[in-house]
Design goal:
The protein is an alpha+beta fold. The protein has a single domain (about 1-65), classed as YefM-like fold (3-Layer(aba) Sandwich), CATH 3.40.1620.10. It is about 40% helix and about 15% strand. The protein contains 4 helices and 3 strands. The protein has a 3-stranded mixed beta sheet. The termini are far apart.
């Protein structure tokens, strides 16, 4: 959610309700973000899942709906060593 400085002053109760509902609030000045209000974590340590959600909201990471699973790989005996020797030469 975004509020201008003016709107934040006029609607502080609404802003606080949004933060209590675990929503991130961005405060803008002339359309430029200048502050962020996030829910208070208190004395409890931040859970990994909470941190992942927070980083995804900030756009610092991209999450997947399904966990990543690598496709099964079969390698013939000696193939890796042969590849490394060829790559080295």
């Amino acid at each position: 959610m975004k509020y201008s400085v003016y709107e934040t002053k006029a609607r502080l109760s609404e802003v606080i309700r949004n933060v209590k509902a675990r929503r991130r609030v961005i405060i803008t000045e002339r359309g430029v973000p200048v502050a962020e209000i996030i829910p208070y974590a208190g004395d409890r340590p931040e859970l990994l899942s909470d941190r992942i959600v927070r980083l995804a909201r900030l756009g610092m990471i991209v999450t997947r709906k399904e966990p990543f699973r690598a496709a099964p790989v079969s390698v013939r005996p000696g193939a890796v060593a042969r590849f490394l020797r060829e790559d080295r030469d």
